[in-house]
What we know:
- By secondary structure, this protein is α+β, with helices and mostly antiparallel strands.
- The chain has 17 helices and twelve strands.
- Helix content is 55%, strand content 14%.
- Helix 1 (3-32) packs antiparallel against helix 4 (59-88), helix 2 (35-43) packs across helix 3 (47-57) and helix 3 (47-57) packs across helix 6.
Amino acid sequence: MGDTSLGAAIACLIAAVLLSAFFAATETALMSINRYRLRHRAKQGHAAARLTEQLLARPDRLIGVVLLGSTLANVAAASIVTLMTLQTYGERWLAVANGGLTLLLLIVCEVGPKTYGALHAEQIALPSAYVYRPLQILTYPIVFIINGISNALLRLLGVSAEAVASHSLSADELRTVVAEAGALIPIKHQQMLVGILDLERIEVEEIMIPRADIVGIDLKDDWETALDRLRDSPHTRLPVYEGDLDLIVGILHMKKVAGQLARGELDRELLIELAKHREPYYIPEGTTLTQQLVAFQENHRRHAFVVDEYGHVTGLVTIEDILEEIVGEFTSLPQALKRGVHAGADGSFVVTGTTTVRTLNRTLGLSLPTGGPRTVSGLVLEKLETIPEPGTSFQLEGHLIEVLQIADNTIRTVRIRPVG
């Protein structure tokens, strides 16, 4: 083989190796690129991103072009090496030459380029789209035949190439994406995003104010007691009922009675009349927070009474309770502790048994389990598996829980303090 022929053969070999490396790197990059970032850039008008998204819409056609080009490049390299070896050294060195070429292709055309493509997917994939689009057009007849045969074989196995796998994320997968965002999304914003996702799997009874803690006006109380309740209430809306919360007359808005109350002109009849202007709004147990948030918006309500299957009121949920699941407590800690959680001078907290575990976790930043009982009382009973005596204590999730009061076989209050 002359010098000119040898030089041309080496040049062709180098070109074939580089082409093989190009196909390997770009294939890995295109398959590794972040589809959501790609879609975002495409919607912003990035031409390469839009072209890349079009290519990835039918991965079978794209892979057909990649493999056709890669195969031709590898076959060309093998043929050139074989020809050069036969003309220069003879058949004795053919196995050695092919072995060397295999090692070269493995390192230079497979492992190296594919690793680089995986690590720099976007930088490689987007420019390569301008190469693959013309190649798709030029090789369409050949690729069409190859894909037709391949897809026919896949259909025998129950796989359809036309049914491209969806890249939609489930709620759990989206939680993982948010958690892995790191410094790209501030921690507080991450917590809010996860809080929104969690609304779908939290039910209203997990965050509601228990029946025993609902503050209202009982029409069967004497009038002075009712007036004291109105004057002392921190709430803007109060249920008015006759002897039992299951018999609610209506919802009283404090701003409607503030003037009469201040002037001493409010009487029982006017109170009942004003309360009847707003009927109670009931929702069933098991309603998710997502459903209820939408329902509040559609019905222009801020409060709802949770009822069981027998129609008995079991609690009260407000729109503020739902929003606090997303953004955290609106109020400062001392005010937030008013709902069944009271700070002690020694750093402990006295908690009523009807306080929900989720409220306790959110208020004090604890991590008590929420997959079982919904109230602190239920959590203690599940742990001890019996009705405890006052003074009984145990450890749970790094906190010492001490039972303080028991009444009517129900845990009324417990004390919680960190261990150590």
